[in-house]
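Work Package 4 report. The design task specified in the project plan requires that, given a folded chain encoded as C-alpha cells, an amino acid be chosen for each position. We show below one input record used in the internal validation round.
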C-alpha cells in the first residue's frame, strides 16, 4: 500500500475510533443530552425487542466492511444461519469501529453501496442480556484464531460475562452460567486447515484457474509480536496442505504477517520454477471482499498491489473473474460476465465450516466447556 494511502487509513482509524467511542459534551448536546454510545445502545435494544422470538440467540461477529458486495455477503450468511438454526434468533455485529463509522457514513455510496448501520458486539451483548436470552452463542467469522478473534473472546464476551457495566441482575447472571459459548474461527484447529484446503480445491472457479496456471490467496495475518494462538502459522499450514494435495500450484501470502508478505510469497513462487508468463489467479483468503481485496490485492493503479507487483515480475496476473457460478454469488450487483472477486464467505462449502463450528459450540452449552460467570464460579 502506498504511504499516502497508509497515512489516510491511519488517520481514518483514529477519527473513526474517536467518533465511535466519544461520550463528550458535543455528543450530548447534539443528541439531546444522550451520548452516541447510549443512543446506539437504545437502537440495538429496540431492534432486539422487535425481533426476539426465542430465548436462544446466535451473535455473528465479523470484522466489518463498507463495500456493497460485503454487505450482501453478510446478509446471505445471516440468512443461512437463520435457516440452519430456526430455534435461534440471529444477529450480526462488526468488531471494527472504523468499519461501523464508515458504513454509517456511506463510504462507498458513490459506487452504489448502501448506507448501513452496524453495531459492535458490546452493544449487541448488552441488548441480548437485557432481553433475557437464556442461551447465547457468539460465533466468530474470523479466518484464524488471531488478534480479532481474541478480542471477541477475551474482551467482548469476557466483559459481558463479568457484567462489567453492571447492566444485569445477579439472578440473570446466575441463570446464564454455562449457557454462553464462543464458536471458533474458520481455521481454529489443524483439521480445519486440511478441510479448508480440500473444499477450496473443489471450487469450480479455482479448479478452472489451476488448469491455466497457479493460484495465490491473500490472507490478513497478524503483525509481529501478536501471533495469537499460533494464528500466523495457519497460513503456512494451508499452503503446505494445498501442496500436499496438489503439488506447488497454490500459494498463501498475507498483508500483515512477517515472513509471509507478498515478496516472501514471490520468492517461494520462484523456487517452484514458475516462469514469466505463467497465469496467476488471485483470491482473498478473507470472509468478505473488502478494502484488502479490492485495493491491496486487485488495484491496477497501485504499483504495490499484488496485481501490479506480480505483473511487473512477469506473471500474467488476474484478480477478478467473470465465470463465477451465479448460484454462489452473494453480491446482488453481480451480473454474468462482470468482474467479480469471490471471498470465503461467498463459498457455500466454506460457510458450512463456520456453521459446523457453531454446532460444535452449541453442544458445549450446559457443560463445563461453556463459560461461567463470576457469581457462580467456585471460590
Amino acid at each position: 500500500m502506498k504511504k499516502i494511502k497508509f497515512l489516510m487509513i491511519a488517520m481514518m482509524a483514529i477519527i473513526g475510533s474517536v467518533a465511535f467511542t466519544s461520550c463528550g459534551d458535543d455528543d450530548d448536546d447534539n443528541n439531546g443530552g444522550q451520548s452516541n454510545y447510549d443512543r446506539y445502545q437504545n437502537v440495538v435494544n429496540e431492534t432486539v425487542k422487535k425481533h426476539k422470538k426465542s430465548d436462544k440467540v446466535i451473535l455473528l461477529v465479523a470484522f466489518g466492511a463498507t463495500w456493497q458486495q460485503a454487505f450482501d455477503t453478510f446478509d446471505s450468511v445471516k440468512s443461512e444461519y437463520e435457516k440452519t438454526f430456526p430455534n435461534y434468533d440471529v444477529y450480526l455485529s462488526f468488531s471494527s469501529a472504523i468499519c461501523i463509522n464508515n458504513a454509517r457514513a456511506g463510504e462507498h455510496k458513490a459506487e452504489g453501496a448502501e448506507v448501513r448501520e452496524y453495531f459492535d458486539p458490546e452493544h449487541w451483548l448488552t441488548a441480548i442480556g437485557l432481553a433475557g436470552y437464556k442461551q447465547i452463542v457468539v460465533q466468530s467469522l474470523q479466518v484464524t484464531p488471531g488478534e480479532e478473534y481474541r478480542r471477541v473472546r477475551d474482551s467482548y464476551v469476557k466483559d459481558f460475562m463479568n457484567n462489567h457495566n453492571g447492566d444485569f441482575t445477579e439472578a440473570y447472571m446466575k441463570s446464564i452460567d454455562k449457557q454462553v459459548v464462543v464458536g471458533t474461527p474458520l481455521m481454529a484447529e489443524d483439521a480445519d486447515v486440511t478441510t479448508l484446503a480440500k473444499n477450496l480445491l473443489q471450487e469450480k472457479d479455482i479448479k478452472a484457474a489451476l488448469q491455466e496456471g497457479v493460484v495465490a490467496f491473500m490472507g490478513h495475518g497478524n503483525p509481529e509480536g501478536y501471533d495469537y494462538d499460533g494464528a500466523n502459522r495457519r497460513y503456512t499450514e494451508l499452503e503446505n496442505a494445498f501442496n500436499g494435495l496438489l503439488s506447488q500450484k497454490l500459494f498463501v501470502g498475507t498483508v500483515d504477517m512477517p515472513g509471509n508478505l507478498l515478496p516472501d510469497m514471490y520468492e517461494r513462487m520462484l523456487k517452484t520454477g514458475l516462469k514469466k508468463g505463467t497465469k496467476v489467479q488471485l483470491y482473498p483468503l478473507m470472509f468478505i471482499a473488502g478494502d484488502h481485496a479490492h485495493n491491496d490485492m486487485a488495484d491496477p493503479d497501485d504499483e504495490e498491489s499484488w496485481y501490479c507487483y506480480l505483473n511487473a515480475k512477469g506473471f500474467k496476473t488476474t484478480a477478478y473473474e467473470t465465470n463465477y457460478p451465479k448460484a454462489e454469488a452473494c453480491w446482488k450487483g453481480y451480473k454474468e460476465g462482470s468482474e467479480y472477486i469471490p471471498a470465503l464467505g461467498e463459498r457455500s462449502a466454506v460457510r458450512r465450516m463456520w456453521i459446523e463450528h457453531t454446532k460444535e459450540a452449541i453442544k458445549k452449552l450446559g457443560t463445563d466447556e461453556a463459560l461461567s460467570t463470576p457469581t457462580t464460579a467456585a471460590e
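The first strand starts at residue 56 and ends at 62. Validation will be extended to a larger panel in the next phase.
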